[in-house]
Amino acid sequence: MNDWEKLFHQLAIDHQMTLDEIPNIDLYMDQVIQLFEKQYAETKRKEDEKILTKTMINNYAKGKLLFPIKNKKYTKEHLILLNFIYQMKGVLSITDIKKLLGKLNEKIEEDAFDPSDIYQSYLQLTNNYAYHFKENLETIYQKSETELEKLDDPDGTYLKKLLMISSLAHLSNAYKRAAEKLIDELDEE
Are 99 and 84 in contact (CB under 8 A)? Predict the structure, then answer.
């Protein structure tokens, strides 16, 4: 297994919580936290990292990223929204996530929309993107090696990682800026 393949597998990029893994019964907060910890354990950078905490959930509810919780129980719709929040919070600000999910929350609260369909579409897209990410990671790895051959430096491993990390960071920033531009367009509509 190549270094880039090992990295891809460690990232668990293709791991998402599917609709089948989201219970059809309402859950208490502790159950929600346990579900997220179990489902996303592979995606942790460090062992002691928390996927979701009571404070996070309370802040999302107070910040109106989630429609109101009834009887301290979270519905399947809440869990879908929490999945979206979890996936976006590493890249987007809470303000941007609130803008993005505001209309969806309203539709759910009015019983005008089941978020399962949009979440399933999201899962389809991310599974497809995971394949493309793997290809791009291989390309970045190979191009970094090619560029490194042009340099006369015995510390090749460090320099290769420097090239890869800076390239990945650049791409990450480009995707983030594209997402932010699309969020800004929501304000204009």
Answer: no
